[in-house]
Amino acid sequence: MKTKFTFFKILNEFTNRISVRIINSRNFAAFLGILMMFGYNSTTNAQTKIVVPNTNEGSAFIGPYGNAARKLQLIIDDTLLTSLVGKNLTSISFRLPASTIDSWPATALTMNSFDVYLSDSVEPANRQLDFAANVVGTQTQVRSGSLVIPAGALTVGSNPNDFSYKIIFNNPWKYNSGNLLIEIQHSGTGISSRTVQAASTTSAGYGTLYSALWQSTGSVTQGNFSMVEINSVDQLSASSVKIGANSIVYPNPVKDWLFVKSEKEFIAYSVYNKAGQMIISEKISGKSGMNVAKLPVGQYVIQLTDKNGNTEVSQFIKK
């Protein structure tokens, strides 16, 4: 008990001396060394989420959950994204209009494909009805594959309604700065369309702070901006660590395959070296293992993301 108390006293003093915003690699390595020496895991929840636009407008748009295949882009000005700078974006969410009576879908459905790409973008005022022309730099695919939407996942009963269903990225994407472009390409629900709350093209911020376009079988068209919640977690650092996780990674030390013993369902993982640099980021399913065979011998931190967008951080040794 005395040893544990002393550890937390040292840990608290250490973390209090580290800047909440910036941590250099030497301090980070030292902190990870303390965690590894005492064999503790750590837990963090999604740190920051923002809603764009942060209003409660009464318009709607089918886009993300159309019954037929669609491609759409959401363009967001960097002035709305300052709280996300330096963070890893992990998921997006849409919500039902306040006038909606029933939760959706009535029964579980699977969209055969739901791909999400992130990149920098042009200014919303310079948006063109040309998908490629709006992309600045390189697009990164952060989500791919089918999307399972449980019955009643998008809930009703409040005004505005909750962003109750997260579309989790397979790979987190670090937002550094600049305008953000979210591109979605999906196969359609195959059943029925479901509108989500949106800001209309006549809204005060449309065309200056945000803009949108979409395409189905016809030409590219301007569209209402589907209100989106963007979720993120801090870069792995001492300032975001909270001691006391229940999940266990094993075997530890590990040679080839790493597994997780937990009551939670994790859908993705990222591996960081002692300098806090991400070196692996992959999705996982069920009880499948994580291949770390190609990692050099040494100590690492693994960040696990569950289906709700929360994360747990643990350590392991590669032998």
TrEMBL record:
Residues 249-314 form the Secretion system C-terminal sorting domain. It holds the Pfam family Por_Secre_tail. InterPro entries: Secre_tail. Keywords: Signal. The keyword Signal applies. This is Por secretion system C-terminal sorting domain-containing protein. It comes from Kaistella chaponensis.
